[in-house]
């Protein structure tokens, strides 16, 4: 095809539809057997064409080998783009530098920069990089050093945002100030901690908007089908699921009804935040695709799709 005909053909095509962003969170496998199961989950999720999949890591990078194993599988054997979690707590600057270079060497171009949860007895003042902000700055420093090898490209850096007050924060205003600092350090977008009230997400958008934050803030969801998992999440994060939801799940006649209740709740929550302007959704899968796919089947993201001109279709 000649160069003179390409542009007119592109101009005649229909405007591109942009659905809300879609992503999933995956845990590295703990064994070779569980890795085989994880491969099937990844294959099922890949069929939904997500924008990326996040790969979690433990604080201190005790499971780094498994993180790299999963990351390399995603890069080499799928069409997916990995967003690799990187926690700074209990790590030296040199260790973090080594990991960042290792990720870039493998082709990773997305990093979720996190401080990480404090182990018992840990003191933040003992860390060389005690917060996410200096971790973002380190990633950007390394990126600048490697501009040529990245073909002038840029690493996409995600951070955490909190619809409710962070357990260690004195106020939600302080949380907002922290997010402002992350954005100024070079963060590109944020993913929220789990929440169960659309109003909490909307209030987060109001606070961040008033502070001048322009980061897209992607809401994070847990398919609310497993009451034990929801209770463990509450213990870990301090964010409790509604009592009515937990009660309904606990008295459900069987797993089929329990899944229906949890999926319906999650779909309704996702619809509310998408209606409020959320740029997409991030599903915490716990390495199981069934519930996440059920949520998507009932949600129909095309409802919120727009053309490149911003005209709803």
Describe the strand arrangement of the main beta sheet, using strand numbers. Answer: 8-7-6-5-4-3-2-10-9
Name the poorly predicted regions.
308-313
Tally of extended strands? 11
Gyration radius over CA:
20 Å
Helix content: 40-55%
* Category by helix and strand content: alpha/beta
Strand content bin: 5-15%
Question: In this structure, how is the largest beta sheet organized?
Answer: 9 strands, parallel
Report how far the terminal alpha carbons are from each other: 31 Å
- H and E string: HEEHEHEHEHEHEHEEHHHEHE
**Mean pLDDT reading:** 90
What global shape is seen?
globular
- Number of alpha- plus pi-helical segments: 11
Report on the architecture of this protein.
The chain is α/β, with parallel strands linked by helices and 313 residues long. The chain contains eleven helices and eleven strands. The strands form two sheets. Strands 8-7-6-5-4-3-2-10-9 form a nine-stranded parallel sheet. Helix 7 links the parallel strand 7 (189-192) and strand 8 (217-218). Helix 2 (32-46) runs parallel beside helix 11 (289-299), helix 5 runs parallel beside helix 6 (172-185) and helix 9 packs antiparallel against helix 10 (255-275). The radius of gyration is 20 Å and the shape is globular. Residues 308-313 have low confidence and may be disordered.
Describe, in short, the structure shown.
This protein is α/β, with parallel strands linked by helices and 313 residues long.
